[in-house]
Amino acid sequence: MERFARILVVDDQPDIREALGAHLERSGFSVTLAENASAARKQLESSAIDLAVLDIMMPGEDGLSLCRHLRETQNLPVILLTALTDDTDRIVGLELGADDYVTKPFNPRELVARIKAVLRRTQNPGDGPQKAHLKRFGTWVLNLHKGELMDQNGVIVPLSAGEIQLLTVFLDNCDNVLTRDELIDLTKGRDALPFERSVDNMISRLRRKIEPNPKEPIYIRTVWGGGYRFVTQSDAP
Prior knowledge:
It is a single chain. The protein has helices at about 15-25, 35-45, 65-75, 85-95, 110-120, 160-170, 180-185, 195-210; strands spanning about 5-10, 30-35, 50-55, 80, 100-105, 135, 140-145, 150, 155, 175-180, 220-225, 225-230. The chain is an alpha/beta fold and about 240 residues long. Helix 3 (about 65-75) runs parallel beside helix 4 and helix 6 crosses helix 8. The radius of gyration is 20 Å and the shape is elongated.
């Protein structure tokens, strides 16, 4: 899961922000950069973020305030960056719910190691349902909380509520053949999709959005006489 994790880096110093972003990308992460808390809030509204790296000392709203906002609005892992030698801000940050902190100047490799450690903790199913709203397949990430589908470049592909429900059903039943009747029952029932043809039409729309070639689908496979089967890209020939 780490390979597809999208990291939000918030730092008002361009040299640090851009250098850190480049290093994280070389380490296999997708990266979104923000120069202040206001820009970070906009990115959080438009992108599915897996972890935020926040500089504490920023003009305007500081990292501690943004950390507090994240803890009040969503379960997003946070690592704080601080240049302070005083323990007070680090303690406050941890009390606000930050998952870890790194003191400037730091070795980027140390930050990468801490990011991976935090992601392993927060994405471990044994730690609870914190990341259950993120469903991944191939190079896609479906964020159920935001109702968004994001590709590997961070581009949001809009889905209707019905398409999200249908895709979720497929992801929850990977490799299983689902008949049209089963798909109807597993979405919202026959009030939402009263006819078999409605299923076929929605699958056609979904294929146009997620398949590299909708005419030769690698995710949503037709099982003639049986229904449909969803496979991950790694399982596709």
